[in-house]
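User: Structure please.
Assistant: Input sequence and predicted structure:
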Amino acid sequence: MGFFPENKWVYLPVIALELIMKGFALWKAAKKDHKYWFVALLVLNTVGVLPVIYLLFFADRARTESKPTRKLIRSKSK
């Protein structure tokens, strides 16, 4: 047999890391309104690869893009 069936203790850190990364990536995707990323992260099980890709490359993209801001126009009262 292979390495993993003989050493089942290896699964625990992998599962814990997957849950932590997936939870954090899902939280960021929901907060930034990335609906397609949220669904992909929720449905696909990639042992932490997809959440890491999202967190490193796509989660911060919304922060760097400029959003239009409303400026308050004060009228001069006499």
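Residues 48 and 64 are 24 Å apart (CA to CA).
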